[in-house]
Amino acid sequence: MHNRIRPVTKITRPVSVGAYPRDRLFDRLDQKLDRPVVYVSAPAGSGKTTLITGYIEARSLPCIWYRIDRGDDDIAAFFYYMGLAAKKAAPRKRKPLPLLTPEYRHDVPTFTRRYFEALLGRLKPPYMMVFDNYHEAPEQSLFHKVIQNGLDTIPAGINVILVSRNNPPPALTRMRANNMMDLLGWDDIRLTDEETRGIINLQGRRAFSEREIQRICRITKGWAAGLILLIERSRTKSTETYPAGNYTLYEIFDYFAEEIFNGMDESTRDFLQRTAFLKEITPQLAMQITGSGDAEKILARLHAGNYFTERHHQPDVTYCYHPLFREFLLSRARDMYADTDIIRIHRKSALLLEKAGNIEEAASLYIDGSGWKSLAALIAGHARSMVMQGRDRTLREWISALPDNIITGSPWLLYWTGVCRMASGPAESRSFFEHAYRLFIERKDMNGALMSWSGVVETYLHELGDLRPLDRWISILDGILGKRPVFPSAEVDACVTARMFGALAVRKPWHPQFPMWMEKAVTALNTCPDTSLRMLTGFYLHTFAIWTGDYPQAEYIVGRLKDVAGSANASPLAGITLRMAGTWAWLSGSCDASLRAMSDGLAMSAETGVHIWDYLLMVQGVAASLSSGDIEKAGDLLGRMGNVEENGRLLDKFYYHYELSWYFHLKDDLPRALMHQEKALKLADATGLHYAKAQSNLAISHLLHKHGNYSEAVKHLNRSMRISRRMKSRSIEFLCLLTRAHIAFNSGREGSARANLRKAMSLGREKGYVNFSWWHPAFISSLCVRALELDIETGYVQNLISRRRLTPDDPPVHIAKWPWPVRIRTFGHFEIMKDGAPVPFAGKTPRKPIELIRVLIALGGVNVDEGRLCDILWPDADGDAAHKSLEVTITRLRKLLDKRDAILFGNGHITINIRCCYIDTHAFEDLIGKADAAEDEGRSDRYTQYVRDALDLYKGPFLADEAGSWIISPRERLRDKFIRCTGKLCLLLEKSGKWEEAAARYLRGLEADDLIEEFYRGLIFCYGALGHGTQAVSAYRRCVTTLRSCGMDLSPVTEKVYKTVLKSGKTG
Q1: How many helices (H) and strands (E) does the chain have?
Q2: How far apart are CA 744 and CA 756, in angstroms?
Q3: Predicted pLDDT of residue 72
Q4: b vs e for 844-861, b when ≥16 Cβ sit within 10 Å of the residue's Cβ?
Q5: Beta strands 158-164; 37-41: pairing state
Q6: pLDDT at 245
Q7: How is the chain split among helix, strand and coil, in percent rounded to 5?
Q8: How distant, in Å, are the alpha carbons of 87, 100, 546, 835 from that of 93?
Q9: Cα 383–384–386 angle (5° rounding)?
Q10: Whole-angstrom Cα distance, residue 759 to residue 468?
């Protein structure tokens, strides 16, 4: 039922009729409102409200009027009604102000500041906000802090007046200290004799003598309430009968009110006493309670006579007795009526108020009148809307007022108690949900049973502690619904679906009906009208997609979450949840995007006061930082997360230790990495979250292997693999396969290593994996090296290397397939390639930078002396000029290569950075070195392969077009290595009877350098062995012609080989 009385009256300014204009105080207020806030304090009945109402009318100021009562101690109720006031003040603003729902309660000060910024931003200056009855807020209430935070920054042209019986509470001290608030006190507000005279002349029914006026002034002492009573009394009695003596203001009020009240007829007295039980009275309500047909006339007469009765203009005219007058009437009523009569009045009034929509006053009267069944029914009818408004504290207080036997016998009261306690204590609320569930089942109320079941499950998912009890509740739902679930409503369907999917995801993703629940969850994400439930469902779906490595599904879910977060009624939590989902971008290699999402999410949290996701945002930020190599950033974030040890949830603690272990692993601090991962594993086991257990077992297997504990490492690795395959997590399986390959390579089990590496890279290619939790560059780089060496998924591996910018500590210069950012070819002809394409020269070729890198390569490329370079490149320049030219040329070369770190320059030495630059000469010599090592180890197969790869690089003489003297030595050295290796390889091939390959190698050698007589000789011999006599003769003649053209004679050895081939008779 819509609440249509209390919200309007509470935020409606009283109407001032026939009030004496207090120009003196109006002028004083004009002065004091130079400050944003004025605090008006004076005893009850001093005319404070009338003064402020008159001032606003006199100055024609638009205003928000808010009457504070005890209900505002529930801060959520205050924000709810302020939202109504804002809508009334600025009806064209379509988007309502936020409600103080549970997600905001972690940071009420921030929420308050943002709320008031939005509220005040809707008001067009000049504008007034009045908070009447400020004394109604208890001294220890959070309300005062809310007001202080909300009014910290008030725009120019907007003023706030706080009206109270008491002096400012300590919580507002800062406002006074900062000169934001001025005071208007009792000494200011007290009526002067002149003002008293004016009011007597305005409201008196007869002429008063000066003596009477002076007597009235002495008795009332400037107190407006006393003055009104004396004027009223003077209608029937002389002022000479006024009591003498020094009485308090309230004693004066009670004395004269008693006299006047007793002078009324019995029906009017009864009318006043019965209606006094209502804080807000409509004529219709008064007639129903009293039975008086004159209700409207009586109330109008009281207001017109300024007799302590306010009137509020609304769709229905509403009256309110002044608190002093109401207290007096209630005291008389308690003396006049029997307790049973008062209870009946309470209950009747409450029932009428409830029908009119004033549920707060109705609930209060039900409580006063012990109308427990009616209160329980009211709660049942309004609990949902109150929870949605964030007023669960008020709801909880109403439920707590009920006798225990009523609460424990009502499943819905138990259910709503659980809802109210969820934010503050999931474990505490769980017992209420469980109790409610049992009663609903007994009563065969499926709707209530399913909602209570959802409440139980939500407590576990919210608590993120021991999730294992969810197994029982999954089985319970299976038993209730069977294989074809049917729900009482779409709302219950969506609610249960979200929780069942979440429960299955964390505990039983292998459940036979899991695909069905996932499909229902996706449907709910797309169709559920409740945006909060859609975001929650989407979050569960996205998280599970990440856990299983289904990144296309995760991306789809993010797209749907964007739609929800972008809707008109979406809360800030929706936007932060979207950023939370975005932080997983690091898994697709977009670590920068992940960190931006984290920063945006934390900024939104700070901006709105919604801190639910702060910790998990930082968890993802740490993962993004660690996997991108930003150890310092990760350390900073872990430092901010450290308080989780004291007050964090079990799963939060797991992630803290898991990531701290990862952090120390990357810092090569194995003892601390192992210590924290052991803690993480215990925490993962304690949560029962299978994904966490798979993660931690896998991580600890890495550490144990590194520690030399092979058997334990394999045991934990196998555990992780079992979990991954059972929950169908392809991402964890991918990492398990990589780890198996890594361990097998290190233990010399080449066959197993290759098989697992092939499976891993095939899976990685299929799923597009480029990053994972527990990323370690050295680990994945070493496996990429082996994959390229073995020609395993070359395209995928190259993409992985490029995307993640991988370079092992020992750069694999021998692997031509490695996707080097810069490639330089020097054999045969000179060429620079950048990202797989030749470097374009815009306009004139940059001669000096090209010359510099050619000389650097010729001189070895590592720690080349600056002086030697300058002597070659600038032989005629003096030392300083040559140095300056070298600096300029290095800058130009770096720009040409588009990588500043490609050329390292310092301490008088220059180095080509082989971590990002591939040079064929380096690869050539590295392969020959590996071949020599393999030969020493007796591994002829490896030797042959290394030599083959090296020889394939030699396309011709080193820098063939260069004629400088500095080129001769390196060119000859490389040529000699080429000749030596070609000869040795061909001899091995000849021994193995591989004549065709040997001949092909000789021909390749001659293409590179046609003056090498040994190659002609070997070629002739191979052709002879193959019976290719014609080719043998042709080779011989080519040799003779080539050598003679250079003035060289054929050696006797070659002649002998040729003659041997001729005699063999295989040349015909």
Answers
A1: 52, 14
A2: 9
A3: 93
A4: eebeebbbbbbbbbbbeb
A5: parallel
A6: 54
A7: 65, 5, 30
A8: 7, 19, 40, 54
A9: 65
A10: 33
Query: DSSP class of residue 105?
Result: G
The predicted pLDDT at position 247 comes to: 56
For CA atoms 723, 729, 732, 738, the dihedral sign is positive
In one-letter notation, the amino acid at residue 495 is: C
Which pairing describes strands 917-919 and 822-825: parallel, antiparallel, or unpaired?
Answer: parallel
* CA gap 798, 522 in Å, rounded: 35
Tell me the chain's radius of gyration from C-alpha atoms. Answer: 45
Q: How far is residue 612's CA from residue 390's CA, in Å, rounded to a whole number?
A: 16
Low-confidence ranges of the chain (pLDDT < 50): 1-7, 1068
Amino acid at 908: G
Structure-token pair, residue 969: 């030595």
> How many other β-carbons are positioned within 10 Å of the β-carbon of residue 404?
8
Determine the pLDDT at residue 308: 84
Q: Which of 906, 925, 1027 is nearest to 976 (CA)?
A: 925
The one-letter amino acid at 859: L
- Cα separation, 822 vs 919, whole angstroms: 9
Q: What is the pLDDT of residue 903?
A: 94
Q: Hey, what domains does the chain have and what are their CATH numbers?
A: 6-190 (3.40.50.300), 194-262 (no CATH), 339-385 (no CATH), 586-804 (1.25.40.10), 816-964 (1.10.10.10)
3-class DSSP state for residue 275? helix
Task: Find tokens 């890279």 and name the residue.
Answer: 761
Give per-residue burial for 931-963: e unless 16+ CB within 10 Å, then b. beebbeeeeeeebbbbbbbbbebbeebbbbebe
Q: What is the pLDDT of residues 388-427, one digit of tens each?
A: 999 999 999 999 999 999 999 999 999 999 999 998 889 9
In the 3-class helix/strand/coil scheme, how is 939-962 assigned residue by residue? CHHHHHHHHHHHHHHCCCCECCCC
DSSP helix/strand/coil, 917: strand
In this prediction, residue 842 carries a pLDDT of: 63
What is the full DSSP assignment across 702-767?
Answer: HHHHHTT-HHHHHHHHHHHHHHHHHTT-HHHHHHHHHHHHHHHHHTT-HHHHHHHHHHHHHHHHHH
- Residue found under tokens 């070629």: 1019
DSSP strand pairing (822-825 vs 831-834):
antiparallel
1013-1050 burial string, b = 16+ CB within 10 Å, else e?
bbbbbbbbbbbbbeebbebbbebbeebbebbeeeeeeb
CA 50 to chain centre: 49
User: Hey, CA dihedral for 388, 391, 395, 398, is it positive or negative?
Assistant: negative
Closest CA to 291 of 217, 222, 239, 348: 348
Tell me the three state secondary structure of residue 825: strand
**First-to-final CA distance of the chain:** 112
Task: Quickly count: other Cβ atoms within 10 Å of residue 213's Cβ.
Answer: 17
**Euclidean distance between CA atoms 511 and 474, whole angstroms:** 10
Helix ranges restricted to H, 129-209: 143-150, 173-177, 186-189, 193-203
How many angstroms separate the CA atoms of 357 and 374, rounded? 14
CA distance 352 to 285: 7
Q: Which amino acid is at 118?
A: A
Three-class SS of 608-624? HCCCCCHHHHHHHHHHH
> What pLDDT shows up at residue 972?
92
Question: How confident is the model at residue 1001, as a pLDDT?
Answer: 93
Q: Tell me the C-alpha distance between 152 and 149, whole Å.
A: 5
**Would you give the DSSP letter of residue 96?**
P
pLDDT in tens, 173-192: 888 888 999 999 999 999 99
938's CB contacts (< 8 A; 6+ apart) are: none
Per-residue tokens: 634 = 């990760």
